[in-house]
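Hi all, posting the design record for the shared folder.

TITLE: backbone redesign
STEP: 1 of 1
STRUCTURE INPUT:
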């Protein structure tokens, strides 16, 4: 089942984000085949990273929460908030019925 993970960074956290980024990317890379898409959320200036959005395949919510517990950005205290939602869309371009 796909889950959308919406995480917002703590204020003034760019240095922390950049320090944790290599470990975060390695952690994501380990499950790349289960990742529909992921990337940083940006401020309206298009330059400032303010959070993360990840849509990933997990068997259930418990598996998402277990994965998040060790996710480097989350474990490292970067995120001020994390929300997890079941995602009903499909990866790729919109397909009209």
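Okay, here is what came back for every position:
SEQUENCE:
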């Amino acid at each position: 089942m796909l889950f959308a993970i919406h995480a917002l960074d703590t204020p003034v956290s760019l240095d922390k984000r950049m320090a944790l980024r290599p470990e975060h990317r390695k952690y994501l890379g380990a499950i790349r085949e289960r990742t529909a898409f992921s990337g940083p959320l940006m401020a309206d200036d298009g330059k400032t990273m303010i959070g993360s959005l990840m849509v990933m395949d997990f068997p259930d919510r418990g598996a998402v929460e277990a994965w998040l517990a060790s996710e480097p950005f989350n474990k490292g205290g970067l995120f001020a908030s994390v929300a997890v939602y079941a995602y009903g869309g499909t990866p790729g371009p919109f397909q009209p019925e």
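COMMENT: The mean pLDDT is 93.
Let me know if anyone wants the other runs.
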